[in-house]
Amino acid sequence: MTHAMPRFEMTTIGETMLRLSVPSGVRLETAAQFDVRPGGAESNVAALLARLGRRTAWCGALPDSALGRLAANALRMAGVNLDGVVWCDQARMGLYFIEFAAPPRPTQVLYDRTASCAAQMTPARVDWDCLLDTRLLHLTGITPALSPGCHALVTEARDRARAAGVAISFDVNYRAKLWRAVQAAAVLEPLLKEVDVLFCSQADAQRLFGLHAAPEAAIVELAERMGAGLTVMTIGANGVLAWDGATLHRQPALPAVVLDRPGAGDALAAGVLQGWLAGDLARGLRYGVTLAALALSQQGDIVVTTLDELESLLDNSGIILR
Length: 322
Known about the structure:
The chain is an alpha/beta fold. The protein is 36% helix and 20% strand. The protein contains 10 helices and 14 strands. The chain has helices at 41-51, 66-78, 128-131, 148-164, 181-192, 202-209, 215-226, 264-277, 281-296, 307-316, and strands at residues 8-12, 17-22, 35-39, 56-58, 61-63, 86-88, 95-99, 108-112, 134-140, 167-171, 197-201, 230-234, 240-243, 248-251. An 8-stranded mixed beta sheet has the order 4-1-9-10-11-12-13-14, with helices on both faces. It has a 4-stranded mixed beta sheet with strand order 3-2-7-8. Strands 5-6 form a two-stranded parallel sheet. Helix 9 (281-296) crosses helix 10 (307-316).
C-alpha cells in the first residue's frame, strides 16, 4: 500500500539509451564525430517533471560503466531520484544514432539496442517499493517491445500499481522499428485498459487500433474502448485534444523553430502530467504544447527549463489561461 504521503509524485521505468547524432547535412557513414546525449521516453518525462519541481524517480537498468554513469549523471542533474536503478555488470548500453537532415531527405534513426541491460530487465530485479511509492506511475509502449521480460515487467507494474491504488499514465509511443502494429496492438490493449491518463497520437490510434475517424471522434472512441480516465491525443501540427469523459478540450500547437525533434512528445506528456498532478487539466494542456515547442527548439531529448521559465513563456505566448 502507498503511504498517506508518497515519497514521489511520479515514478517510471524503461530504457534510457545514449543518442549519438550528426548535424544536419552530415551523413552517418562519413561521420567524424558525434554529439552524445542520453535519452529515453520514460526518463525524459521524469527529468522534465523534476525540473518543474516534482519529486520523480526512474527505476530502469544501466550498465555499471562510464556510459551508464553518463546517463545517470544527466538524470541526477535534472533532479531525478535513481535509488531504484539496477546497475548491471555484464550488459551493454542501448544506443541510437540520428542523422539530422533538411528536406528532401528525412531525418533517419538507427537503433543499436539488442541485448541491452534494459532489455534484460525482469520483474524480479525491480525495486517495487521504490517504483510504487508514488502518486503516479508512468509507463510507455516502448518497454514491452524490448523483450518478453520487459513485457512481463510492464504487466506486473501495471497490476501492482492498480492493487496499491497508484494512478497510472501510459503513453502508447508505438515504434515501428521495434515491432509490427498488429503485434503492438495485441500486447498493448490489455495494458491500456482503465489507466488514469492515456496518451496516444492520432497516427498511433489509426495504425494500432484502426480508428480512422476525425480526431474529435477517434479520441472519444479510444477512451471508451480502453476505459481511460483521461485520454490525450496529439494531432501533429494541430496541437492536442483531451477527453475527460464529459468534455473535449483542445489546445493548438505553438509555433516553433525545429532544431531537434526527438523528445517533443515526451515533453508534451510531462506538461500534461504537471497539470494533472495539480488538478488543472486545461493548464496542463497549455504546459504540454509549450514544452513540446521548447523541446523542438533545444538540442537533445531531455528538455532543460524551469517552472518560472515555463510560466513566463505561457504569459508571453498569447495562450489565455482563464
